[in-house]
């Protein structure tokens, strides 16, 4: 079970998923600035549709991800499996292709003009492509495929060797645009790892601030924090309360790429 949980914690990181309602002005930006003094976020709401990104994020990118900080706020009393192992990744960058594409989404789904049956081109993440490249970067051939529920962009399944599955379901989200044009997203999602003698659950929040360096420089930088919370099944759940048991902070750099390779599988 410890090995399963360690795999799970790796798969939590950097998932490009889903959508958000507007957060209270400045809250998400302030949240990032207050790392690692976090409590569970409350001003998020149930997901509706897909996450709409700024137009400047469309295209193929080579993403360089570097773990720059991590914290176990409740240590030594509570430390998640895999936390100490993840410390070895500190300041060790990894790179993989990702892409953001234009899709035609109903205007009614965006709540722009209710009750008009028209569609609007918007920028969304290629969730299956991005998540598969991410997972294989960390786990290699143990990752067989990533599937997004065709009926909902809020549900995704990662299939692993040995009849194991990681099911991710977004339960809440928010977005925010700052005065200096940072685009910030928060997604809260439940993770279910199936394939062992006992399924394993936990809750994860991923908050990311994207920033285009300039209109003449297509490179994008981002600051991302992933927080792991215990599930009610964990014996330490009430002891942890609303506090995360692990926090991971990443520096993300997106470099334009003319070719975005499709992973095998």
Q: Count the helices. How many?
A: 6
Radius of gyration: 18 Å
Runs in which pLDDT lies below 50 for 5 or more consecutive residues are: 1-8, 10-21, 108-116
Sheet/helix structural class: alpha+beta
Number-wise, the strands total 11
> Strand count, sense and closure of the main sheet?
11 strands, mixed
Order of helices and strands: HEHEHEHEHEEEEEEHE
Mean pLDDT: 82
Into how many domains do the coordinates divide?
1
Q: How much beta, percentage-wise?
A: 35-45%
Q: How does the overall form come out from the CA principal axes?
A: globular
Give the % helix: 10-25%
- Give the distance, in angstroms, between the N- and C-terminal Cα atoms: 26 Å
SSE topology:
Blueprint: H1 2-11, E1 21-22, H2 27-33, E2 59-71, H3 83-86, E3 94-106, H4 107-110, E4 119-125, H5 127-139, E5 143-148, E6 155-160, E7 164-177, E8 183-194, E9 200-214, E10 217-230, H6 237-240, E11 246-256
Parallel strand pairs: 1-7
Antiparallel strand pairs: 2-3, 2-11, 3-4, 5-6, 6-7, 7-8, 8-9, 9-10, 10-11
3D architecture notes:
The structure is a single chain. By secondary structure, the chain is of the alpha+beta class. It has one domain (2-256). The chain is built from six helices and eleven strands. Strands 1, 2, 3, 4, 5, 6, 7, 8, 9, 10 and 11 form an eleven-stranded mixed beta sheet that branches. β6 (155-160) and β7 form a beta hairpin. Mean pLDDT is 82; it is low at 1-8, 10-21 and 108-116.
Name its key features.
265 residues, globular, 6 helices, disordered N terminus, alpha+beta
